[in-house]
Every structure is written in structure tokens, then in C-alpha cells.
Amino acid sequence: MKKTVLDVMKGMEPYCSSNFDMPLDLQIKAKTLCWEYNQTGPKDKEKRSELLKQLFGDCHPLTFIEPSFHCDYGFNIHTQGLAVMNYNCVILDTSPVEIGPNVFIGPGTVLACSGHALLGFQRAEGIGTSAPIRIGKDVWIGANCTVCGGVTIGDGTVIGAGSVVNRDIPAGVVAAGVPCRVIREISSEDRVFPWSAEKE
């Protein structure tokens, strides 16, 4: 059975968009929902929650996003627990974006599944690429980071502000830079308050 455009977009394999037209109607729907979301006030918690449920493929009740927020399609975004995104975040979800529980994403961060052909004439022909992004549980991504398509960030990892994450980052580390590289492992010595007990 031949795969549809949505089958390819929702799949976990990288792809090239030269073989089909992207679903413009679904992009317009997402842009409309994002516009409505960005007009909400700080007290409009129920309205924000309802709009995110309409927009995302899977939206955990503990998903909190500060406007303004923008995404390409929405249906490819999946939150699995507490997810906090600060101001001016963008998700280009031409492939699935999986956000694990207890993930904090700093302001101005971009999660970009989509890319373009390296050759100029191919870009002019509209040839693009896409690959999924996976963010593990207990991850903190600092302000103004870019996470590229095809990247997995391991559980418990911290990404320093201003980083460009263009390759997989393992679990339990501090990583930063352009391109993002592992700096060190996170240990018990990083505990801010000695009396705060880790929960199993």
C-alpha cells in the first residue's frame, strides 16, 4: 500500500519532500490556531489548554507554553508529561517532535525538523528535508537554542543557552556550544539545595 504524505510526515524516518506537496490546508489550520493562542491573556488557562489540544498530536494536560508560539503543523508535536516552553519558541514539525516528561525549554528556542537542499538550484525548486526530534525526560534546554532535525537529547541532560544541537547528545550531561558538545556529566554535586531529596 502506497504511503500518503501524512504517513511519511508522521513517520520516524528522515525524508525528502521533493516527491510530494506538503499539506497546505493543515499548515493554515496550525497557523490559525497559533494566532488564536498568541492572542490569549495570562488568565486564559483553559482556552490555552483547549487550543493546544486542538493543535498538538498528543498534548499532556501539564503542557504550558508562553506566547508567542509558532509551529508548522502541530499534529507532529507530542508532549508526554510536564512541558514548559518559555516566550518566542518555534517548532518546525515536518516530522514528529517527541517531548518527554519534565522538559523545560528556554525562550527563543527553535526545534527544526525541516531543512533545505544544500545545492541552490534544488532549494529554488522547493526541495527540502526533514527528520524527527526526540527530547528525553527531565531535559532542560536553555534560551535561544536551535535543535536540528534527526537529533535525540538523552534523559536528564542540560543544553546550555545559545547552543546549536546538530547531533545526538547522551543522557545525564551538560552540553553547550556551536556546535553543541558534551562538557561534563551531571552528578550529585550539582544539587542546588542539599535538603531536596531526589524522587524515584
Explain this structure to me?
- With 200 residues, the protein is α/β, with parallel strands linked by helices.
- It has a single domain (13-184), classed as Hexapeptide repeat proteins (UDP N-Acetylglucosamine Acyltransferase, domain 1), CATH 2.160.10.
- Helices cover 18% and strands 28% of the residues.
- The chain contains four helices and 19 strands.
- The chain has helices at 5-10, 24-38, 45-55, 120-124; strands at residues 15-16, 63-65, 69-71, 77-79, 83-85, 89-92, 97-99, 103-105, 110-112, 114-116, 128-130, 133-135, 140-141, 146-148, 152-153, 158-159, 164-165, 173-176, 181-185.
- The chain has a seven-stranded mixed β-sheet, with no helix packed on it. A five-stranded parallel β-sheet has the order 3-6-9-14-17.
- Helix 2 runs antiparallel to helix 3.
- The mean pLDDT is 94.
